Amino acid sequence: MKKIVWIILGTISLILGLIGIILPILPTTPFLLLTLTFYAKGSKKFEMWFKHTKLYQRYLEDFITHKAMKKKDKWMLMIFVDLVLIISIMLINNIFVTVALILLDIIKYIYFFTQVKTISTHKPHQTYTKQQKNTLA
After folding, report:
1. Are 57 and 17 in contact (CB under 8 A)?
2. Structure letter (DSSP) for residue 126
3. Which three-class secondary structure state does DSSP give residue 70?
4. Distance CA 38, CA 14 (A)
5. Residue 74 backbone dihedrals phi, psi, to 5 degrees
6. Which of 24, 74, 126, 128 is most buried, judging by how many CB atoms fall within 10 Å of its CB?
7. Are 28 and 43 in contact (CB under 8 A)?
8. 93 three-state secondary structure
9. Tens-digit pLDDT profile for the chain (137 aa)?
10. Exposed/middle/buried for 39, CB within 10 Å: 0-12, 13-18, 19+?
């Protein structure tokens, strides 16, 4: 029963991630990360299927394998989280919660600026080994 719930949650977050591709106000990356997490908990088959999609390869593979994100994706994610935290602060009128959320936001920025590399959106020039150069000549 738990596995079905994880798969359903993964599918919901996948749908939200797909909507995020179209609507710039809804970020894609966090929902796809949730999809991966939920599918991994629910079913190895769903997890493997998701990892082989172009969606995963385009939006998550660099982050998962290299701890790197495109600059635009990084900023969209951080701004979305900021908006969620601001709404939470406004809805929960408690000084301790407000301080905790502000600290969480500061930690988020420190993490993203120190731990998550920024990758360029264009492909780098291909480099060849000596053996490859000899075969090209």
Report:
1. no
2. P
3. strand
4. 10
5. -60, -50
6. 74
7. no
8. coil
9. 899 999 999 999 999 989 988 876 677 888 898 999 999 999 999 999 999 999 898 888 877 888 888 888 788 888 888 988 899 889 988 999 999 999 999 998 998 888 888 887 655 444 445 554 445 44
10. buried
Can you read off the two tokens belonging to residue 83?
């908006």
How far, in Å, CA of 61 to CA of 64, rounded?
5
Which residue, chain included where needed, has tokens 């502000």? 102
pTM of the model: 0.60
Contacts of 30 (CB under 8 A, 6+ apart): 77, 80, 81
In the chain, how many domains are there?
2
Give me the sign of the Cα torsion angle 104, 109, 115, 118: positive
In a domain, 134, yes or no: no
Contact 35, 50 (CB under 8 A): yes
In the DSSP assignment, the letter for residue 117 is: E
Q: Which residues pair with 28 in a beta bridge?
A: none
Tokens of 137: 């000549």
> What's the chain's length in residues?
137
> How is residue 108 written in tokens?
């988020």
Q: Which domain holds residue 59?
A: 1-66
Rounded Cα gap, residues 37 and 122, in angstroms:
28
